[in-house]
Amino acid sequence: MPIRLSLVEDDHLIREAFTDLLNNTEDFLVVSSYSNCEEYLRNLTTDRPDVVLMDLELPRMGGVEGIERTKKLRPQTQLIVVTVYENDELVFKALCAGAGGYLTKNMPPSRLIEAIREIRQGGAPMSTNIARMVVASFQKNHHSPLTARETEVLERIAQGKSYTTIADELFVDKETIRTHIKNIYWKLEVHSKAEAIEKARKERLI
Amino acid sequence: MPIRLSLVEDDHLIREAFTDLLNNTEDFLVVSSYSNCEEYLRNLTTDRPDVVLMDLELPRMGGVEGIERTKKLRPQTQLIVVTVYENDELVFKALCAGAGGYLTKNMPPSRLIEAIREIRQGGAPMSTNIARMVVASFQKNHHSPLTARETEVLERIAQGKSYTTIADELFVDKETIRTHIKNIYWKLEVHSKAEAIEKARKERLI
DNA sequence: TCATAATCCCCTATTTTGGGTGAACTAAAC
DNA sequence: GTTTAGTTCACCCAAAATAGGGGATTATGA
């Protein structure tokens, strides 16, 4: 049984080049290719692709929404994003939506074939820079204005814990936590939990 | 200028095998190798490695703490974890601590060399399954007991927002949000924000 | 020594939260 | 075509949490 592939890509030159490349690869079968998400989604359940190569910059419905709908309609479908965009926000949106891989278009054609085999074997093919972005997203900012203790407190605030709970966990008085919070708010220039959490997440302080 | 390498690995057979392999690779220079983190850290600033290959199961101080301390002592140091463990928690702890790559020991030796070049070129070398785990960590559980609306509410709760704020954002009454929260608590079998957030994060509902 | 960090205390006022109970309307599913 | 699930809103209560203001004591390290 060959690996069934669908393509969603609005540039028809690229679409045809990919189709040619993949159809000439052992075990691969391009079952369909579309220039837009709407048409692709209408045929998804009849095409039954194993892997979909999806562009993100598409007319009307964007690729991220296309990924989300794919996963709702047919969860076993595996998606690899193939795009020129390396924008942080877009990458994470695509991954959150359900993309299992993310390639940028400056790759050699062989990487595409490799990626399809990789995702089928339980991997998550990513371009170099994307992998770095993804791993970096786990790591904290080393130039935080907050002290270690303040960071510890803010992390617990972000877990929805009350001052009392945090105080108990850190074996200090509730008043101490209050002081830390006041200092955190002052340093981050915010006036509420929600603002502090948002700013801290954005700047990777927690 | 060769790429300076340090090894931290308690099995001396593996340590020597890696040293031999890497010293016989163009542009690579193993400047030091240790069987424990303590000794490695004492010599870090004089060894000045570009890349450290770090095992996680080490006597006394564990690898994760070793990574953290490395980043504090000498932030420009790049670390690749080389271990047999594929445990979720350990992988994410290592990445959060500052690891820039994560390889499991069932790889061919050539992958090690490739990984070192990859991390130097701005990548994040990972074994197949690790990459999958990392990407999967961005994605939600598809079998959530919560409705779309409830998920939307819980996400905002996890951002530290008050019922009033959420109500405004979703253009509904505060009482509606309260009802959603009651239903969320009932479904998740919890009785507070903190518990709900914890459970939801653990089960990837948000 | 001076600055920073971490600890604790008091006061006030408002908001938030959790729990209980009930009900109207919609849309999908059976 | 009735039932179910989801979303919406209402009103009750009491305890808890929050934000802002003020001030204080230690300890550490530059």
Automatic annotation (TrEMBL), chains A, B:
<keyword id="KW-0597">Phosphoprotein</keyword>
<dbReference type="InterPro" id="IPR001789">
    <property type="entry name" value="Sig_transdc_resp-reg_receiver"/>
</dbReference>
<dbReference type="InterPro" id="IPR039420">
    <property type="entry name" value="WalR-like"/>
</dbReference>
<keyword id="KW-0238">DNA-binding</keyword>
<dbReference type="InterPro" id="IPR011006">
    <property type="entry name" value="CheY-like_superfamily"/>
</dbReference>
<feature type="domain" description="Response regulatory">
    <location>
        <begin position="4"/>
        <end position="120"/>
    </location>
</feature>
<dbReference type="Pfam" id="PF00072">
    <property type="entry name" value="Response_reg"/>
</dbReference>
<dbReference type="Pfam" id="PF00196">
    <property type="entry name" value="GerE"/>
</dbReference>
<dbReference type="InterPro" id="IPR058245">
    <property type="entry name" value="NreC/VraR/RcsB-like_REC"/>
</dbReference>
<protein>
    <submittedName>
        <fullName>Response regulator transcription factor</fullName>
    </submittedName>
</protein>
<feature type="domain" description="HTH luxR-type">
    <location>
        <begin position="139"/>
        <end position="204"/>
    </location>
</feature>
<dbReference type="InterPro" id="IPR016032">
    <property type="entry name" value="Sig_transdc_resp-reg_C-effctor"/>
</dbReference>
<dbReference type="InterPro" id="IPR000792">
    <property type="entry name" value="Tscrpt_reg_LuxR_C"/>
</dbReference>
<feature type="modified residue" description="4-aspartylphosphate">
    <location>
        <position position="55"/>
    </location>
</feature>
